Amino acid sequence: MASCFEGWVVLLAMVVLTLSTPCSHALRIVKTKTRTSVFVSPKFVLGPGSVADKYYYDIDFPKGHIAIKSFTAEVIDEEGNPIPLHETYLHHWVVEGYYGRVGSVEPEGTRVEELQRSDFILVRNSGVCQRTLGQYFGLGSETRKTDTHVPDPFGIEVGNPAVIPAGYEERWMLNVHAIDTRGAENGLGCIECRCDLYNVSTDSRGQPLRPGYVGGLFCCYDGVQCRVKQGFNGVKRNLYLRYTVKWVDWSDSIVPVKIYIFDVTDQMNHSTGHAIEHECRVEYNVKESCSATSDGCFDSQSSLATMTTGGYVVYGVAHQHTGGIGSTLYGEDGRVLCSSIPIYGKGKEAGDEAGYIVGMSSCYPRPGSIRINDGETLTLVSNYSSTQTHTGVMGLFYILVADYLPNSSA
């Protein structure tokens, strides 16, 4: 049997051999060196009460056929100092992949869904919300204290030359949505995008807001201004999103995972024919329903989504806004696939801002312990405190799913 193993290269690894197993099926576990790349976005300028909602194309990103192991980000100033949420609120950042025709140039300021399809092909995740939530990575205020690492031997595969169309190249888009709340009359109202505080009646395309729309993304788009206290003076600042990517070179020892994003506002539409259309509205409102002294004062929303193809859950995390108290993803039989709880800050420094969600707990199931069956319908539940009204909140849930386990014949 010794001849079977001659020439194997072990890089920072242990080779586990079961002598009773034939050589051709021996289990090999390889830990590849993780690399780290730190990048900085183009600058965006914010003054007190102002909003930046920027789309940056062909951003700096690790090249080649690789496996992403982690993606984190935070807002910084020109000196590289982290900016606290009570000064600049990071509503969200989103990273999406796409293929660009070689030599093509993206129109400045264009939203990703508006790119010319002949020159640009969007690369979406595996989730059901393809129209609105196609990103590979994305978080918000919780970005500094949310664990995003993908456990070994799993990885998010990108840059595979076999799947990039001829004449195209892989590129990445970054969307940064930030709100400056220095001197704001109502800081919470500004970050929850209350329309009256922004004094807007149309969306970013100039279309009238729908009747009854009181707050959300349609009211805090790029360039609008939230109301600040009379006489407050504050300087404009050049800010940046610093993002850190951890990755390894692709190898056969890595098990690829698929990205799924679920939305608690998803309303499955069965009237479109054979295929079910998912209407993921991304945001919703929480109405005040009881006093702050009441017990069990919360708003609970839920949605259903069917997984055409199942697999093994290796990671999970929710995304909520201020007021969130936790979210859970359930299997069809009621078993808990993952629960994610917000971490609220208690101080003033960046990463621990009082009253803000500064992190979300992540799930790392023991490999093989959480399996989703093909065709299984999942239930997502998102809970918020309803001691006061909240507008434009979100209830998203990210999971990473592997088709097979590392020790299987696949």
Automatic annotation (TrEMBL):
Record-linked Pfam families: SURNod19
Keyword Metal-binding recorded: no
Signal peptide: 1-26
Keywords for the protein's UniProt record, in alphabetical order: Signal
The protein's name: Stress up-regulated Nod 19 protein
Organism: Malus domestica (Apple)
